[in-house]
Amino acid sequence: MTEFIPFSKPIIGEAEKVAVLQVLDSGWLTSGPVSEQFARKFADMIGDRPAIAVSNATAALFLALRAAGIGSGDEVITSDYTFAATANVIVACGASPVLVDVTLPHLRLDVELVEAAITPRTRAIMPIHMAGHPDDMDALRAIAAARGLLIIEDAAHGIGASYRGAPVGSFGDWSAFSCYANKNMTTGEGGILIASEENLDIARLFANHGIRKTLTGRIDGSNPYYEVVVAGLKFNMPSMSAAVGLAQLERLVDMQNNRNNIARRYDATLGALSGIRLPSVAAEVMHGWHLYMLELDPALIDCERGRFIEELRAGGIGTSIHFTPISSQPFYRDARLHTRGKSVAKSVAANIFSIPMHGGLLQEEADRVVEVIGETLHKHRR
């Protein structure tokens, strides 16, 4: 039987296992020196601003909003074409997400619609670097500067991506990355928040119950007292996760190169097939290839997307769907949505799916993915 090729999988080796065992042997399992070291090394990869390591990217976005003082009565403009966490954190802070449609072919925020969505209540723009393709940061930053708005980058897909030579995450007042299991590097669960030192000082309070006190002082007994100065929660990254992250950073270049090579291979081989649309990459960006998304062309293929991906699964190929637009989710159906006539996000979402892409995917596996897709397309060609 042919081995199943999953949509994604983490690449874990001996270095990660050794790093976790060292943490277990140290006796310091929660946040501490290892977590701080991981945050520093990740931040160095992005630019000259500091970072904190947190429990996940959702927490990082929430902390950015809270530390920026965004709350009840405020609005944050973001993409309709994204994962639910992007909008959920805005609601969790008491603010209102204002959803804007995307443009083809790169699924970027529609800049003119962003302008039209701004009201006196707007506090921030939250761009999405969809699938690892950077948003139009020059245009969005110009709007933000002219209107006095913050940029909060949802860079959950952004590891390995760059815009005009600068890494994704270096453009926002706040930038949040994901280290989830299917991302370009992983800590299992985890996230990184990057901002100025002043802004991060506020975020650290919210990430640790609002306590103005270092954990070290409480553990070693040098200062057993603490003060709660804001109503914070608990979003720290434990040392075991950070240890995995440090080992992953050492292999990130190789894993990213593999993603780039697989993407080029897909471009060349899938590009020879009819009935699907391939990802498009703008000239000014380096794609991070967190996802490789295909769109069925219903004018050429007589097969509904759900059936198509089930047939791929039967052929041993894993897939995933990214994403159902936020405005299509029951909770958000009454949200304010800015589109031009027919929604691009909804149109794309009806036929798009992601195929296997990860840092350890073999070329022969990618070739089999293409072979099965080609056979399935041929079977359903109009």
Automatic annotation (TrEMBL):
Residue stretches in coiled coil: none
UniProt keyword DNA-binding present: no
Annotated signal sequence range: none
Swiss-Prot/TrEMBL keywords: Aminotransferase, Pyridoxal phosphate, Transferase
Pfam entry (one): DegT_DnrJ_EryC1
Keyword field contains Electron transport: no
Transmembrane segments: none
Needed cofactors: pyridoxal 5'-phosphate
GO molecular-function term, one example from the UniProt record: transaminase activity
Family statement drawn from the similarity comment of this UniProt entry: Belongs to the DegT/DnrJ/EryC1 family.
PANTHER family in the cross-refs: DTDP-4-AMINO-4,6-DIDEOXYGALACTOSE TRANSAMINASE, TRANSAMINASE
Protein name: DegT/DnrJ/EryC1/StrS family aminotransferase
Species of the source: Nocardia rhizosphaerae
